[in-house]
Design goal:
alpha/beta; Leucine-rich repeat, LRR (right-handed beta-alpha superhelix); Immunoglobulin-like; 2 domains; cytoplasm; cilium; Leu-rich_rpt
């Protein structure tokens, strides 16, 4: 149910800078309002009031609007004209398409107190179907100049005044014949849908009935309007609740790719697990055949200043895995390789990590070329001969620990990469690779950072 509130009035008073005490015009149409309230207290200077297309069933709480000149209550649930006697400045009243019945004509006389009333609209009300409707209203309200948009001529006014006694007798006779309590109809409206304060009651009785086809048929009346409005309001609330519930659950399409968790060690893979391609760190890499066709060459752009201690490698005959700063790069190989004979190097200038993996059977060409990723798209997938450094292989120190041997500010050093394991083959069980690395200066690794830019770190 819509209510007239101070906030609503201020929203509608933008042209008056939100000031309601001096407001002279306000439009409150199509707000589902069921009761007129607060206007007399908040807006005593109102001259024009638009309340059309609401659910108002009773004209009330307007007696303090002494300067009100135009009241629009079209398309509401009004059944009687009342409570306007103190609106001394009222000039125009629009009650088009309401529910003022033939018995409601008895309440028209209450507008005699509005001596400035010039225009009245009752078109679309049931009372306008009565044959003597126009003459009756013209005779009862001699101050009117227009009724339903048509000017009242002096001759018409004289004729209406002469016919008034007969019209009153006919109207009262018809109402009594219909069983209407004439005295009650002229004094008190039928407010079965409203309580003593004029507010709509919470439980509106069902007005419809089932026809021969089993369909619900409702007559056009104030109760029907209230029922249909509240049913529509409930349906809208339910739809909004469903919409909010759906919005509270993020969609995979809307939320985008989820940030993968950091890995402290390689995830376990059983013999029955399916191996998927993964690149959680979005590293730039290429996987190609060597120029002689005897090996596969994997080149990964891990960044120039990334410390080797943050790189772990696991090479198996059919796949290779790398953990770079806790992010997994997992690739299926297009053919079987020999992990025990593999070699790992880092480029002297760019820091690129290059892993050369000899094939198990060099005589067999790579058939599954879909698993290859050439460095240059559209090429054959053959690695260039200058992909890696030509630094000589040095023996690893007894306690490398991921740090380069030797002192000073740089040079060629062999390091033992922690966590590198070979899948099979001889050569010592542990299967650790020897990684040749060139360093310009000792660089301290930042364990928690995600960015590996080419700019040197702060000193």
């Amino acid at each position: 149910m819509g209510r007239i509130s101070e906030r609503l009035i201020r929203q509608r008073a933008e042209h008056n800078e939100g000031m309601v005490s001096t407001l002279e015009e306000v439009a409150l149409h199509q707000q589902n309002i069921e009761k007129i309230e607060l206007l007399g207290q908040l807006c005593p200077k109102l001259k024009i009031l638009y309340l059309q297309n609401n659910l108002i069933g009773k004209i009330q709480n307007l007696h303090k609007l002494k300067e009100l000149e135009y009241l629009n209550l079209a398309v509401n649930n009004v059944t009687k004209l009342q409570n306007l006697q103190r609106c001394e400045s009222l000039k125009k009243l629009d009650l088009t398409i309401n529910f003022v019945a033939k018995a409601g004509l008895l309440s028209v006389e209450s507008l005699r107190a509005n001596i400035h009333l010039e225009e009245l609209y009752l078109l679309g009300n049931p009372c306008s179907d009565w044959p003597g409707y126009r003459q009756y209203v013209v005779a009862k309200l001699p101050q009117l100049k227009k009724l339903d948009g048509q000017a009242i001529k002096p001759s018409e006014r004289i004729a209406a005044a002469q016919a008034l006694p007969d019209l009153e007798a006919a109207l009262l006779g018809e109402l009594r014949a219909e069983g209407v309590d004439v005295q009650a109809a002229g004094a008190v409206e039928d407010d079965s849908l409203y309580d003593e304060t004029g507010a709509a009651v919470q439980d509106v009785p069902e007005t419809g009935y089932l026809d021969d086809k089993g369909e619900l048929v409702r007559p056009w009346c104030p109760a029907t309007r209230l029922l249909e409005h509240r049913e529509l309001e409930a349906a809208n609330r339910e739809a909004e609740d469903k919409k909010r519930a759906a919005a509270a659950q993020p969609s995979p399409l809307d939320s985008g790719p989820q940030k993968p968790p950091r890995h402290e060690a390689f995830p376990d893979i059983s013999d029955t697990d399916r191996i998927y391609q993964k690149n959680e760190g979005r590293w730039d890499f290429s996987l190609e055949e060597s120029p002689d066709g005897n090996s596969l060459v994997l080149e990964v752009g891990v960044g120039r200043f990334l410390d080797t201690s943050l790189i772990q490698t696991d090479l198996q005959p059919t796949y290779v895995r790398m953990l770079v700063k806790g992010k997994l790069l997992q690739l299926l190989l297009p053919c079987e390789v020999r992990p025990d004979a593999a070699r790992a190097q880092r480029d002297m200038t760019t820091g690129q990590l290059v892993i050369t993996m000899p094939k198990e059977d060099p005589s067999k060409p790579v058939v599954d070329v879909s698993k290859l990723r050439p460095r240059v798209p559209g090429t054959s997938g053959i690695a260039t001969a200058t992909a890696t450094t030509s630094a000589p292989t040095l023996a690893s120190p007894a306690a490398g620990g991921g740090q380069p041997t030797g002192g000073g500010g740089g040079g060629v050093g062999a390091v033992r990469v922690p966590g590198i394991s070979a899948g099979r083959g001889g050569g010592g069980g542990a299967g650790e690779f020897t990684l040749k690395e060139v360093r310009r200066a000792a660089v301290t690794a930042v364990e928690g950072g995600d960015e590996d830019g080419d700019d040197p770190p702060d000193l």
